[in-house]
Amino acid sequence: MNGVLIIDKPSGLTSHDVVNRVRRILGQRSVGHLGTLDPMATGILPLVIGNFTRLAQFYVGSEKSYEGTIRFGFSTDTYDADGEPTNEPLPVDFSSEQLEAAASKFRGIIAQTPPPFSAKKIKGVPAYRFARKQKEVALQPVEVEIKEFEILSIDRDRAAFRARVASGTYMRSVAHDIGTLLGFGAHLQSLRRTQVAEFSLTDAHTLENLAALAGNCEQSPKSPVGTHEPLANLCVHPRKLLPQMPAVTADEPTAARIRSGQTVNLLELSRARQVKVFAGQRDLIAIATRVAGTLFHPKIVLCGS
């Protein structure tokens, strides 16, 4: 089975936990994810399956959208609700205008220090390994871009927000830093990822739904799990993938050459730098890069001969 499957990750599981469960459900080892979600967080976790794991390189810098809640009054060591408080709860008293003024400082390109409990590396070692041993974690600020950050509502010591950010942005750090700015301390109480690149919650499926459908497929003597059409239909339609790239449908001789890694002529796409090459409506067989003129060479082949 080759495809991109969007899972609505439940709270309490790591992204790797989800990958392992899907591997067991599908009976397929080759499964990876396109961007980690913290255990506390829920929402979109795109998985690449089979040969489509080769598409991961095109999603490294994907934009992401979130909805969540910030709780004011105390910070935590992980910057979210899973952590231990780092100060006694303080009384919270701010106006919507004060919160909006603080939020405005977290829009655009800013310098952000990642949380100590993060995968950011210090001399090749993930920071969370030092943090778990209660060793000092000295992470340097990095430049991130917060394209949208909107406070939706305020309820006493909690504020709901919506955000759209560039890759590498930590919403945990945003919550922590706003709390520091206001002087009360704060942490991320909840987070739900609503979009990654071209994928939205309308594309997502629960692990329970996937497992139930896989169980039905196992009962079918005609189609073993992983090859049954209903399971494949849970994947995002290949024509929806990488919308920034034009698509071309190759004839049989051209498709055969691409599958064997040969350069081909694609006359109708002479100006594109990279293209998606299909054989038929759903069979994405390669991502090809323009060599010169109308000549394209397969950068990655997704379906061999």
Explained architecture:
- The protein is of the alpha+beta class and 305 residues long.
- The protein has three domains: 3-60 and 200-233, Pseudouridine synthase, CATH 3.30.2350.10; 64-196, Pseudouridine synthase; 245-301, PUA domain (Archaeosine Trna-guanine Transglycosylase, Chain: A, domain 4).
- 21% of the residues lie in helices and 33% in strands.
- It has helices at residues 15-26, 96-103, 127-132, 171-182, 207-218, 229-233, 252-259, and strands at 3-9, 31-33, 42-49, 64-72, 108-112, 121-122, 125-126, 142-155, 158-165, 186-196, 199-200, 204-205, 247-249, 264-265, 274-279, 283-292, 295-301.
- The strands form three sheets. Strands 1, 2, 3, 4, 5, 8, 9, 10, 11 and 12 form a ten-stranded mixed sheet that branches. It has a five-stranded mixed sheet with strand order 13-15-16-17-14, covered by helices on one side. It has a two-stranded antiparallel ribbon with strand order 6-7.
- β10 and β11 (199-200) form a beta hairpin.
- α1 runs parallel beside α5 (207-218).
- The longest helix is centred in the N-terminal third of the chain and has 12 residues, at 15-26.
- It is elongated.
Concise overview:
This protein is α+β, with helices and mostly antiparallel strands.
Brief descriptors of the model:
elongated; 305 residues; 7 helices; 17 strands; Pseudouridine synthase; five-stranded mixed β-sheet; Archaeosine Trna-guanine Transglycosylase, Chain: A, domain 4
Gap between N and C termini: 16 Å
CATH superfamily label of the largest domain: Pseudouridine synthase
The low-confidence runs, each spanning 5 or more residues with pLDDT under 50, are 219-226
Number of domains: 3
Question: Can you count the beta strands?
Answer: 17
- Morphology: elongated
Helix content: 10-25%
CATH-defined topology of the largest domain: Pseudouridine synthase
**Can you tell me the CATH architecture of the largest domain?**
2-Layer Sandwich
Structural class: alpha+beta
The chain-level mean pLDDT equals 89
Number of discrete helical segments: 7
Radius of gyration: 23 Å
Strand residue percentage? 25-35%
What is the succession of H and E elements? EHEEEHEEEHEEHEEEHHEHEEEE
The profile of the biggest β sheet is: 10 strands, mixed
CATH class of the largest domain: Alpha Beta
Oligomer: single chain
